[in-house]
Design brief:
Chain lengths: ~240, ~250
Amino acid sequence: MNPVVNVPPAMSTLERFLFSFFNPEIAGRYWKAIAEGMLLTTWLGITVIITGLVVGLTLAMARAQHVKPLNFCIIVFADAFRALPPLVIIIILFFAFPYIQMSMSAFTATWLALSLVLAAFAEEIFWAGILAVPKGQWEAARSTGMSRLEALQYVVLPQAVRMTVPPLTNRVMAITKGPALGSVVALHEILNVSSSASSESGNATPLVVGALAYLILFIPFVWFGRWIETRFAWKR
Amino acid sequence: MKQDLPAILELKALVKSFGALQVLKGIDFSVQPGELAFIIGPSGSGKSTLLRCCNRLEEPDGGSVTVDGVDITAPGVDINRLRQKIGMVFQSFNLYPHMTALGNVTLALRKVQGMDKATADAKGRAALARVGLTDKADAYPNQLSGGQQQRVGIARSLALEPLIVLFDEPTSALDPELVGGVLKVMRELRESGMTMVVVSHEMAFARAAADRVVFMDEGQIVEQGPPEEVFGNPKHARLREFLASLGDR
């Protein structure tokens, strides 16, 4: 059966528009695949956020220990991965790494690339937060016998993290659009599934369903981000 | 002066520079148990740096700092353990804004000394009682006046049962009407036998409570002695100028 649905000839402009963009038959045919893409996008987004934030925080904490060679490496990492477009990193990981015996799936390549980029930004944001905590806080903590790491953990970070919530929320929002980049390595996330469904059927309805899927996924997420920002608003 | 006892704090030939500027030019200084040593001097004379070298918040470039018989500048020394015995009170209080007064006072007890919460809280409340803030245990720093914040700062160092407490201009950031409460706490502390080194401009307090007044200028100790002699009969011209410049404070 040819999946392409041709526009019946005797249609008004409005009917043509609805037929092409809001076609129930097409939507019914592809919504399951798009829903699966949505699940994959969600799963990828969550793993990227967790990995990126954990790695970013760890790097910022390591940087606060003031070990010069280590800090040099962290700064190089952060600058490189903030400068590189995530798309390029995905392509390199997926297409070039097999030549050095490091093949990975489309999911792994996208996850790794986005996590590294988020980690680089998160490290800089956490680091800026750590720097913004007055020096006297370190001194007070150290004067009561805390090690540098204890002072960081109990005194400096709780204050730094609060300050970093708004920029961090923004950055996390930005990176969650990243899974769409996985479409270049044939990752079955929302955009890829809906655009191939759209070419297959010769109809734009799957893209509309895909857009809807993004809205369903991200509107609550944007609200959650807003709530987090109010929740952690710093009262002085 | 109580010269017969071994010193709790002893500085020998202490040298410290910031870049090309030599801030401490070979300081010899010791404090006996129970003594209140009061350091005065013009701004930039090195008094705060001297104090901050006593717990290595500033690393001395040369010389030694001995606390209770242990050279705290020796390589391999466990400075974190030693610092628990050297209390410090800061000009800007430096309370942890995300914790209550009690949380501030007990943090090191719980996290550094590994004390359980109930024991730490009991100790913390006792320390707050000593500074007259029993009823403020659950208040956050931004809910306290400057004077109360500084008293929490004092309680935070007392909770660790230090051998000596260093005060770095403890009243300089306070409104005049709040200074009295902090000085009263320091006075009581002194009467309870605590060894104290105070850098401050509260000359009236020095007159009334200090065992010894130390005048520093340009990185050196110029003159020291009992307050009545240093204030009443200053020998060095620079000290006389300094005292004159203060007017009748």
